[in-house]
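Lab meeting, item 3. Inverse folding demo.
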């Protein structure tokens, strides 16, 4: 008798446990839950990308400082920063007066199927 009671109780407990697990999984697979999980993953990925970008920027600044120190470069003086760029040079190939004056015409071909040949 105790054997039957034990197995009945064990079976009932296993059924309750399995039903609870299935219900939890079904709640996780609802559209609202999936959307919330996707949003959380996207936010987490955004934070990771931001941290990565900040690490890269910090590394760039550090490396530029190391290179500047190794090459003996200092920050540019204030008057060099305000200096204007030289005017752009024109190349002869791009000069509009150097273009050829002859024009070429492309023959036109009629693709009308109803036209007599």
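The presenter then showed the designed sequence:
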């Amino acid at each position: 008798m105790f054997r039957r009671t034990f197995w009945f109780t064990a079976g009932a407990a296993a059924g309750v446990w399995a039903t609870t697990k299935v219900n939890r999984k079904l709640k996780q697979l609802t559209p609202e839950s999936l959307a919330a999980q996707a949003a959380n993953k996207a936010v987490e990925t955004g934070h990771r990308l931001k941290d990565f970008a900040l690490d890269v920027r910090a590394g760039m600044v550090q490396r530029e400082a190391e290179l500047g120190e190794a090459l003996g470069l200092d920050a540019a003086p204030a008057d060099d920063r305000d200096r204007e760029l030289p005017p752009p040079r024109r190349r002869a190939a791009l000069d509009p007066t150097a273009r050829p004056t002859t024009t070429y015409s492309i023959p036109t071909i009629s693709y009308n199927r109803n036209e007599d040949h």
